[in-house]
Amino acid sequence: MFARSLALIGSLALAVGCKVVPASPDVQGPTGRSTVISTATGDSLRLHVGDTVRAGPTPLAVVVTSVANDSRCPKVVQCVWAGSVDVAVRVRGAGETRDAVLQLNGRTPSLEIAGQRLELVGIEPEARSGRPITLDEYIAVLRLTNAGAPPAPDAVVGDTTRILLGQAARFDGGRLVLGFQSIEEESRCPANATCVQMGNAEVSLSVTENGQRVGTMNLNTSREPRHVTTSGYDVALVTLEPYPGTIPPNVRMAASVLVVVTRR
Q1: Using an 8 Å Cβ cutoff, are 123 and 104 in contact?
Q2: Considering its fold, how many domains does the chain have in total?
Q3: Residue 9 has pLDDT above 50, yes or no
């Protein structure tokens, strides 16, 4: 009976446009417990305070020890600054232990250890007004990448540019650099299903201008904002690939965004 109930729930989810697991899956361990996982370069780790994971080609033990100083601006409020939040982590690997405070939209979004870069790419839940977020509600979204990775390739302003998850592209000789940080929502109706609504995909892009990290932008495929203006450039999201239902379930395909950057 339980198995049949799960199957029915799965069928109903497809009918209304369910949340599809991204090509680079997030991994979340149970609060306060250690989880041993294997991640590909660019995969995300979603950790509550107290969670520990062991991940990466050179195994690193990563634990989120606290979250503090959350000054993020709620979406329903007009702010002059996006705000920031501090996430304290302890990382052990290759005979080294590092304690660091990573800041979202701040000066220290990442640290390097054992040839790898650990970057804070997001915080859940979104900032809200009226009721403070409790410590056990926070989820830090972290990403491990190769610290020796090559620089972002140059892209042409006005052309459609593909950016893989965890990678970046440079425009105008590096005056603008966009990095594909994370998939915030994937509710698009699968190509092999019939849905009442078409659904939406939302992605988060990091923004660096003239060598200075200035924050992030979130873009959507089916609702606003679909494009954002920053420092004389208009950034528009064309699509997120792969589209749900277009590849076999046993095939893993890296997620990527197609964007068009034009001058204002």
Answers
A1: yes
A2: 2
A3: no
DSSP count for the chain of H helices, then E strands: 1, 18
Give me the pLDDT at residue 4, please: 42
Residue 81 buriedness (CB in 10 A; 0-12 / 13-18 / 19+): exposed
- Contact indicator for 234, 264 with CB cutoff of 8 Å: yes
User: If pLDDT is split at 50, 70 and 90, which confidence band does 148 have?
Assistant: low
Are 144 and 263 found together in one domain? Answer: no
Structural domain includes residue 70: yes
- Between CA 19 and CA 184 the distance in angstroms is 10
CB within 8 Å of 248: residues ≥ 6 apart? none
Query: Based on the domain organization, do 258 and 138 belong to the same domain?
Result: no
Evaluate whether 15 touches 196 at the Cβ level (below 8 Å). yes
What tens digit of pLDDT does each residue of 210-231 get?
888 888 899 999 999 999 998 8
Q: CA-CA-CA-CA torsion for 35, 38, 40, 41, nearest 10 degrees?
A: 60
CA distance 145 to 257: 18
Are 94 and 172 contained in the same domain? no
Q: Give the burial class of 258: count Cβ atoms within 10 A of its Cβ; 0-12 exposed, 13-18 middle, 19 or more buried.
A: middle
Supply the pTM of this predicted model.
0.49
* 163 and 145 part of one domain: no
Nearest to 98 by CA among 115, 111, 117, 85: 111
- Domain that includes residue 29, residue range: 20-149
* CATH number of the domain residue 258 falls in: 2.60.98
